[in-house]
């Protein structure tokens, strides 16, 4: 599996907002992850960041499918 990671692969991360709840979804190598974050301070604007401390993130595509 380590070799396939070195070669790179496509991954999709989806973010949804429902009021004060932000949900992130992703699936990789057959493992599905879901993360739910509650916004407790009433902020209207929320910013997301993608980071890769041990990998390179390239070819980022953003869509606003609702």
Strand content: 25-35%
Computed Rg: 14 Å
Count the E strands.
Answer: 3
| Number of H/I helices | 1
Mean pLDDT across the residues is 84
Overall structural class, as computed from helix and strand content, comes to: mainly beta
Sheet of most strands: 3 strands, antiparallel
Order of helical and strand elements: HEEE
Uncertain spans: none
Relative helix content: under 10%
Morphology: elongated
Assembly level: single chain
Strand order of the largest sheet: 1-2-3
User: What is the end-to-end distance?
Assistant: 34 Å
List the domain count as a whole number.
Answer: 1
Structural overview:
- The chain has 66 residues and is mostly beta strands.
- The protein has one domain (1-66).
- 9% of the residues lie in helices and 33% in strands.
- It is built from one helix and three strands, in the order αβββ.
- The chain has one helix at residues 2-7; strands spanning 13-18, 21-28, 31-38.
- It has a three-stranded antiparallel beta sheet, with no helix packed on it.
- The protein is elongated, with a radius of gyration of 14 Å.
- The N and C termini lie far apart (34 Å).
- The mean pLDDT is 84.
């Amino acid at each position: 599996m380590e070799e396939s990671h070195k070669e790179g692969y496509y991954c999709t991360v989806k973010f949804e907002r429902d009021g004060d709840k932000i949900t992130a979804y992703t699936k990789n190598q057959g493992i599905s992850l879901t993360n739910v974050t509650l916004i407790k301070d009433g902020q209207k604007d929320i910013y997301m960041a993608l980071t890769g401390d041990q990998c390179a993130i390239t070819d980022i595509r953003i869509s606003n499918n609702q």
